[in-house]
User: Fold this.
Amino acid sequence: MTDALDMAIDAKGLAHRFGSSVLAVDDVSFAVGAGEIFGLVGPDGAGKSTLIRMLSTVLRPSEGDADIFGASVLHKPAAVKRRIGYMSQRFSLYPDLTVTENLSFFASLRGVPRREIRPRSARLLEFAGLTEFANRQAQFLSGGMKQKLALAVTLIHEPDLLFLDEPTTGVDPVSRREFWRIIAGLHRRGITVFVATPYMDEAERCTHVAFMDGGRILFRDTPTGLKARVPGRLLEVCTKDQRKARALLGPYPWALSVTVLGEVVRLIVALDGPSELEIQALLSSAGVVTQCVRPVRVDMEATFAFLAEEARLDREVAS
Amino acid sequence: MREALRRISAIASKEFIHIRRDPRIMIAVLVMPTIQLLLFAYAISFDVSDVPTVLLDGDRTTASREYLAAYEQSDFFNVVGHVESQKAIDDAFDRSSARIAVMVRPGFGEALARGEKASVAVLVDGSEPNSAQLGQAYATALNQALGRELTFEYLERQAIDPTRAGGITPFIRTWYNPERRSADFLVPGLMVVVIMIVTVQQTAVTLVKEKEQGTFEQIIVSPIRRGELMLGKVSPWVLLGVIDMLVVTLVAIFLFGVPLRGDVLTLGVGTFLFVLCSLGIGLLVSARASSVEVANLVALLISFLPGFMLSGFAFPLHSIPRFLQVVSYAFPGRYMVTITRTVFLKGGSFSILWPEIGALALYAVVSLTLASVLYSRRPD
Assistant:
């Protein structure tokens, strides 16, 4: 099967139950090709972490199976472990060990040849910009540095597939950008990256994106492909009275999605819907003062708002 | 195999770094047992004061009167009377009106005056070991202090070099239960309890901590096996546990004067196995506890209570209810208390103690295996 070789992840009907009833992950099947940056987005509690933990052999699936580079997580976990690196959501290194000690501990645990540990650690620290902190205890690193160290640790045995569970949550914007620069570097070297993230701007940087909610993957595509699914234009309405504007616009059939994002109301208007000027007039006749109604490019944020709404409606229709 | 050893030693050396970086662990492991031993030993054997005492001055010199006056001034002796004969001491003991009698023999003053050792008899009612132990210890202490003072005073008056002269040699004899000093009886048992509390407590925390830190998941995604993880976790503590036992043994011998009559190797092997058992229990707790706090509490309960009640340390095992006797087999303390007492006091060796040693070995294997099985590799 040449197919399986090009396939980094092949999940077949994965499910996980906590206790007897709660389905954290519900019959999930999907494939990730080697070399992709695969983004898993979705709200908290969607089942992203559970899915990642099953794929990285931390958690045993209640049902189904997944092949990682052709090796089953159920039957050949040892083979899977050799190929993957896993970075959990929380910082999970030893706070009282130094940066170097953390690296060489996991290197030994991972069976990195003894003579390789030093040069590899040095390269990774250089790569992550941590060289000058090599002898600092991990607990005294900043949030961003901790995440980079955690990433360096997951790379010490040179895995072909990286699982990153919300790696930049709680990290400042500058460090986030830097972290993604590192991921892009890994991607160029051919490493497959599977990353769960709550940030839509991060989803934009992935080669493929899947949206997960209620334990299911609702759709997956390239970012461009996903955006193309939005059958309308995105408008930003600047107003002080955002809630009223939303309530007013929501019921119109041409308003495909209305959300409040910071200072503005974001509105997806169907292709055959009214123009900006008509919408502005409509709002002001209802007493909502608007400073602007302007078209913007459809982004992931808006795409997911729309697709999530769509999925919700579908489910309502189905039930 | 080579890889497995490497993973085990990676875990072990990491544990050593944790231990080195955390002064609390060092204190808990090396200082606490000694303090606990001292506290327990004194609390248990020295819980009496104002021991009723009678004095017999057979010498009737200034020196003897001065010597006996020290007992009257002490808080620990309650001088209830001065008697004239040994018969009167017997009576006082029989009526339990006195537990200690101090007897100055004729010639006490003269002996001191000649710079020789003067002898004093301290008679202790051994039927109540606690007060007997107390009285004896304080009489000894008092004698040492007084003895030095008396001799020095005298020697200075005579201008003799104090280091070359004798002192007062207390001649102590325990009546009714010769050789049944409570320290000898309690300390070897106490050592076991103390070691158990420390080792169980420390290991109970180690695995839970990995889970709380989230580092456990990182370990899981590595090729390490459960057994390897357990061995790596346990080995530094085996070393510390054995060091612990060594420290406590030295304290017992040099501070409490407990004689070590038997085979040291047997004691060593027993200690090693016992430490393994305690670690096994600790890991069992750790495998199932939901948080560090829970682990601490459970460890304390599971080591402290059975350690005290079911090891034969405080109560002879044949005198506890039958049900508890059966339960006591489930804790390694009883085997180890037998081993320490037999080795220390009876001069026992492997030829007598092999059943206990065997039981500990079996216990160690079972508890460690069970712990690694229970410590599920895939946490929820």
